[in-house]
Protein 1
Amino acid sequence: MPTLLIAILTLGAVGLFLALPGGRADTRRVGWVVLAAAGAVLLALLLQLVPGADPRGLFAGFALVAVFAALRVITHRKPVYSALYFILLIFAVTGLLVLLEATFLSMALVIIYAGAILVTYVFVIMLAQQSRPAPYDVKSREPVWGCLAGFLLLILLARQIELFLVPAQRTPLPAPVAEAAGTIEAVGVPLLTEYVVAIQIIGLLLLAALVGAIAIARRRATPRVESEGDE
Amino acid sequence: MLLPYLLLGAILFVLGLIGFVTRRNLIIMFLCTEMMFQGIILNLVAFGRYPLKGAPTFDGQVFALFLIAVAAAEAALALALVVLLYRYQGTLDANAYRMLKDE
């Protein structure tokens, strides 16, 4: 099976390289076909690993949506669409978190990421909007080396995961947590007792980031181009 | 059940990495770091739900919450810097900001 996995990942690397912005339109289409083939085989492989019948289809669906959205984020030429596909990725990850019985965290993810962080991103993208696709969006930088480095890392990670987990998979799965799994109580009690120092530090970090962001945004840059985004 | 989640998390992380290296738009680059965070969140929660030994714990979810807070701080600072850089040169091309590089 490792050789099969490596073959799939190599196929995915080639497909991603072809699909990255920079090539001609038909090259990108070929890249998407290759990516779809690699994704289908990978999905079949993952499904074969998942025992049981019920969460299997859901996992497969969410995983497919997540990987597709992630690919679109890094291959789309228009930044606004990248941001919107990222929101799709958030929703797919939310579904996976619900499958992992992390209900509170999944809702927090939607509210914080899709509701706050991505809105900020879309705001900034609108501020720096170009009427036509900008040249730096149309052409990517060193796609060969980027894909090669990424997929070497992925092969390494997959190999380590397999080495560690395949013996551990033999042990029976832990029983499902009680129905109160992942609620605010279950997450909040350790958050405010065991990790109380960490949460103070996170508060400090957020305060520092807030002050820093305001200080940076107020600064007058010596503009080479007269800024129109001066609200 | 743990293995597919870990594999999916690794795939999301690596896709974010490739996007960060290959895209030239500053905003997309930071969006790719957020994508790497998604992979890590999935990893943490999966390890909390299906630990290698012992009963499931909620520590993974707590760490994921911390990670979301760090991601929010990062987004605020990074976007403030991006807006400042855009005012400075009128472009989001990462290659345009190489004046720190030793010529």
Note: The radius of gyration of chain A is 22 Å.
Protein 2
Amino acid sequence: MRVQSGARAVLRTAQPRTASWFAGMAFGILAAFSTVALLATSAFLITRAAEQPPILFLSMAVVGVRAFALGRAVFRYLERLASHDAAFRQLEVVRVDLLRRLIPLAPDGLGRRRRGSLLSALVSDVDELQNLPLRVVQPLVTSLGIAAIAVWAVALLSPAAAGGLALCLIAAFVLGTLASSSVAASAERSIAPHRSALADALLDYLGGLDVLIAYGAEPEARARVIAADRALTRALTRRAGGAGLAAAVLSLFSGLAVVWALIAGIPAVGVAGGISGPALAVIALVPLAVFEILAAVPLAVGAWRQVKSSASRVSDVAPSIAPPEVPADTGDQVVRPDSAAPVIQLRDVAVRWPGRPDPALVVPRLRVQRGERILVEGPSGSGKTTFAHLLVRFLDHDGLYELSGQDVRRVGSDAVRMAVGLCEQTPYLFDESVRQNLLFARDTATDDELLDVLERVGLADWLESRGGLDARVGERGALVSGGQAQRIALARALLHDFPVLVFDEPTANVEADLADTLLRDLLRAGGREERTIVLISHADVPPGLVDRRLRVRDGILTESARRSAE
Amino acid sequence: MRPLDPRLLRYAVSARWLLAGGLAVGVATTVTIVTFAWLLTACITGAVAGDSLESLLPQVGALAVVGAVRAALLYAQDLLSAHGAARVKSELRVRVLAAVRRLGPAWLSTSSDGRVTTLLGRGMDALDDYFAKYLPQLLLTVVVTPVIVAIIFFQDLVSAIFILVTLPLIPVFMVLIGWATQSVQRRQWDVLGNLSTNFIDMLGGLATLKIFGRQHRQIERMRSITRDYRVETMRVLRVAFLSGFVLELAASLSVALVAVSVGLRLVDGSMDLSVGLFVLLLAPEAFLPLRQVGANFHAAAEGVAAAEDAFSILDEDRQAEFDEVAPVASRAPADGGGTLTLERVGVDYGSGPVLEPVSGSFTPGTVTVLTGPSGAGKSTLLAAMTGFARHEGSITLGGGLIDSRSTERPWLAWTGQRPSLVSGTVASNVSLGSGEPQPELIRRALDLAAAHDVSADAVVGPGGAGLSGGQAQRVAVARAIHRTLERGCQVLLLDEPSSALDHDTERRLLSGLRLLADDGVTVLIVSHRVAIISAADAVVPVVPIRQTVRS
């Protein structure tokens, strides 16, 4: 099973190496040892007792039986506590590691797919990584360790029986692992496509049931779902019993190991230099207990497959090295504005998206003066959002980009974003109260200041109807309309007081009828105090709102022919 | 959770033969377990008594055979349960699907979004553990444990008593600890859920956090949240793992008790070695299935929770069947056309009226807009007209009364707020339900719906994937127009057809609809867009239901 290097790095972070983890391992081995020793000492006790020795000779065995019985339960309990504690401590490390990888990448290094589903999949993959210590390493080390100890102990009594036990253990381990991983592999190949076909058919059927009924297409669509279900069920039954194969292999070799021990041991009983009756009982019964513990191995192999694919998904989505199109965070200077220079100056700039060879946007020349309001128009997909992400350094560029006379490459990205703010096309609202969604822009703001800024962006009435600053905005702002979300985003930006403010398609998720009012309100509230405004829009913007119009066509930003009245 | 849910058996007929098969395999397994222990005892006691390997070879050989048979039975057990689980899932799925069809779209829209889709897809897989791990072990507990205890009882009364005393302790303690941890565990699930949503929320808003320079603080925040989570979780686990502790302790202590008491009686010669060894080998087997039941209990409970969702849908369907009247196809109006009239049409889903009665009359060749504030019940009115909501008052077309109970409406073409497109091509969506799709008609419908830019051959993924919001909306309108043109429907009913369109496209859509009206179609649009209202021939307001009526 090959693991690519990115995934290997993820797996390394997922495996704890702390004291509590090693304590957990030690308890695990002790628990497994107690299981085997309980059966061995019991067998020894009984067969030895049958020889009717003085009871004194048995007292050790009696104590041993009781101690191992208690030990098995107690050590197992301690093992589970210690290893879970270690795994949860590691979860902290894993999550922080993921966060560290994602911070430089976000948002444009993460690809332009739907972020919501991507992230929940990512988080469940990260949670899956906990299974590496708990369900892979721990059971493997414990059962292999105890198998080695058992073989060694049996060898002390009968090397021949120990050889047989070792052979049976190895064969069971190899065959059991092969069985369970080939079953899992074939399941991935043959079951997964049927599963997704069924999910698609269900989505079509349930999502459009009213239409399907009304148009008389319901029976046909239901037949499609049922056909997908039949295909899945057929695939499932074809590979049925696969999981039992590993268990059956283990059971078979456990029997063989017992038989071997008897064949090796019986001729030696009572012979000079041979073994005693009780020793025969021990070597014949120990394999039963060892194989019971070995049953964890096929499960661990299955868990390993899942952990491994989770790790490679995590390293695919969040590579530890950012693609070159995403700016590396070099330089930590603060912006030293040259008040004579234009706020923004671009010359021969080209911007690329990660994984695309051709530039998404070219800006031959652009100067924006302090306090200017410019509009960037163009059809959707022409490169307008690329322009916004260039300005806030989410994307790196070729050519020159100067902010108040200073090359942005010499300034840390954080410092650039202190000067240039962005109201995103779909503003992200955290699943918290309105207050929390504003406060992170300036955490020293008082309630009065928050109310004041909400008043300025035209949300005073809305806030009152929702019950004040403690009103929640819902998951991803579900309880807030597109226009209100834009206004909240603007309120945040005003609190932070960016000298330059970029609006990326503020009316994209707003009803066309309400768009003009929103634009007017945004520019009125945002455009005070000498703030420079860059408005990006594909829709019509009413005249008089902006000083200058620019146009993006086929990825090239140029001055528009029609100029607004200044 | 009940150990064995009778409804699972009632609904899933295939589970019955699975159970019977499992029972047979269980009995056979018991026989091999006992035989294996007996043969092993015979070999060891024989050797201790001085028998040679040659004289013991039959027993050793039989031991190998029994071991192989036991392995085969394990495999058979797994085969049976995997087959059974697949069948049961399939059967439940098909039944729930049929129930959903009978309950209809109105019911589906009241159940929470995506719940049914998840249940019928991945949700059913939670039953795997129930059938593959939990149920077989439960069967084995019922079959194997009593047999083994009985055998021990006839061999050695004292050992049987030890086992009989400790065995019931397992379920008793499991239940007690389960009670003790239940409330803590529920809180725990909430904490876990919060932790995940919190993390997803934080990652989702990372770009926003970066804009405000707040991204670096999140690392410390994540640390402290995860740390709190660990402390909280470990507090629960210390108690929750006690149930596992009790299971292990009861099993191993009873083996120890049996071993020690047997040993002491062997020393004074009051017992035979063969009996002692046999009992020692059987004792753990009496506990094994019960331990497995305990170990798989949680996985099984998840499966049953999923099954319960399915059962509640089936139960709802069975109750609904009682007041269902056989559907009567509404008669098409005799003259094949005429005025559509609503006479005090209201809707009551059973918990009070949800629509203030609407009256109005709509003549062929006109475009009418139904408008009103959100929540006034515009979509409910639409459901009444399409037949998915049982309504009061009357709807007549050309004087003929429309049956409120039937969704069979050959005179009507409509589309709802959601485009509800299905996998295929744009053409197959536009000509949905049509026997012989004609490309020219499909193109004409697309053009009338202002979808000039959409190719009829474009591929549509499940749920309309691959089209933009505005494209999907226009394809859905084109679907209704296609039906109007192909079947000569008299009424075209559109719910918010332009909410995702810009002004230009909306204008083109309006002129397409006007052309249809000029051909004698009655066009009804639910909308509150200015352009549509100003272009309409008439506006019918839908007013929110009066507070007095609601209370």
Note: Chain B touches chain A through 132 residues (CB under 8 Å).
